[in-house]
Specification:
424 residues, TIM Barrel, five-stranded parallel sheet, three-stranded parallel sheet
Length: 424
């Protein structure tokens, strides 16, 4: 077995929404209220909704651009790869990267639909969430059967409405829903309350995994006001560590036996120490803190409920004997700045190449298929789903790293192994 024999399913990618998301998907009385896609005077793209303007930050769509052009400035569609927003081009980019399946998180709405949750008229808000979900499931995921894991946007402002939308979208095939890693930071009750019980119950009954993406609390770890942005980027995964602590000490995981949550883009290298720490903490302090896990340890509860995810984590893979390997999944993060596109198989193989085939298969696709009720092989024969087979479908596709700034078209060398089938 080598890198091109792997079957890769990414549980964390992103879509830059195209202008047509809401067309024909809203009741007539709400059609004029939908977000509008506009070009600003400086040529950059934005969405307008209820007086708010949302631009696409460059770091959200840098696939194919040289690292020296990364940044936080707004972009236009002609500055980003069409695969960021065009579904056919996305699948071609997946093929070129040897990736079979993808779960895509939203962009301009906020990770958990914060944009619509702020809408005063909740009937309008729900109409927008439902329209977005119908576009995501029917068009973005439905255009190419077997290639995408649908992930619905939550109606987060009301747990009963949220539960109903989870049930509706589950019937349409969505067995993932994006949610906040810390809803209290968004002004709603925390996961320590029973406020969200209708939502957790619906997810259990519909076999829907709750995805907690880093940054979905609209808060990042910041040390000092004058710290360089490198500090923020370094500490971004720590949001997930905080979320994991919230989850393990809340009553929800012991209350809902079938609940599954994914710590999206959180990495796995920190988990062995975290599990050691929560068990030590429990054994030392539960007598006076009142925590009761019965005959189990907190680490066992974690492993029963939590799906873990990584992009590039050599230490985490090396620490696999301390992880539940039935829960470890892989991410590509296309088209964000941490993405391993277009050389994901080669980069992942550096860490997993020496593992037993059983472990490789679990990490690369089997765990994701089980966690998200995803069956790509019902649409695509398994022998056509390997990285090598997918790449052979788009031999010659230009995946060179190049400047896309207006007025420039200067190719840059690909910082990876020669893949043979790809044009530079």
């Amino acid at each position: 077995m080598d890198a091109e024999d792997m079957i890769l399913v990414s549980v964390d990618d992103h879509v830059v929404e195209p202008p047509t998301v809401f067309e024909g998907r809203l009741p007539a009385k709400y059609a004029d209220l939908a977000p509008k896609f506009v070009t600003r005077p400086d040529g950059t793209s934005a969405w307008l909704y209820e007086g708010n303007e949302m631009t696409n930050v460059a770091l959200n769509a840098v696939a194919g651009r040289p690292p020296e052009e990364y940044g936080m400035e707004p972009t236009s569609f002609d500055e980003i790869r069409p695969g960021c927003w065009d579904i056919d081009e996305r699948v071609a980019d997946m093929d070129a990267n040897g990736v079979l399946g993808s779960l895509c998180f939203p962009s301009f709405t906020g990770f958990c639909g914060q944009l619509f949750a702020r809408t005063e008229d909740k009937d309008v808000a729900l109409a927008m969430v439902r329209a977005y979900n119908d576009w995501h499931i029917d068009e973005w995921c439905g255009t190419h059967p077997g290639r995408f894991i649908p992930c619905s946007l939550p109606a987060i402002w009301d747990p009963e409405v949220l539960a109903a939308e989870v049930r509706r979208t589950a019937k349409k095939g969505a067995h993932a829903v994006t949610f906040s890693e810390n809803p209290s930071k968004l002004g709603w009750p925390s996961v320590h309350s029973d406020h969200w019980d209708p939502f957790w119950k619906a997810c259990c009954e519909e076999q829907v995994t709750v995805c907690l993406h880093i940054g979905s609390s609209s808060e990042l770890v910041v040390t000092s006001p004058d710290a360089p942005i490198d500090v923020l980027i370094t500490l971004t995964p720590m949001n997930i560590v905080k979320a994991a602590a919230d989850l393990i000490w809340s009553p929800m995981l012991r209350k809902f036996d079938d609940l599954k949550l994914a710590l999206s883009e959180g990495g796995i290298g920190w988990i062995p120490y975290f599990l050691e720490r929560i068990d030590y903490n429990y054994q030392k302090h539960h007598y006076w803190t009142g925590q009761d896990f019965g005959s189990k340890l907190p680490s066992e509860i974690f492993n029963e409920h939590i799906i873990t995810c990584f992009i590039d984590d050599a230490f985490g893979v090396a620490s696999r004997e301390f992880l539940d390997m039935d829960n470890v999944t892989w991410e590509c993060d296309y088209p964000h700045s941490d993405s391993t596109w277009p050389t994901a198989p080669e980069q992942l193989w550096k860490y997993v190449g020496g593992l037993p085939k059983e472990d490789i298969d679990r990490i690369t696709h089997l765990n994701a298929m089980r966690a998200f009720s995803y069956d790509p092989f019902s649409a695509i024969p398994k022998e056509q789903a390997t990285a090598g087979a997918l790449r052979s479908r788009v031999t010659g596709r230009d995946i060179s790293i190049r400047s896309t700034r207006k007025g420039e078209a200067v190719p840059h060398a690909i910082l990876a192994a020669d893949l043979g089938t790809m044009t530079r």
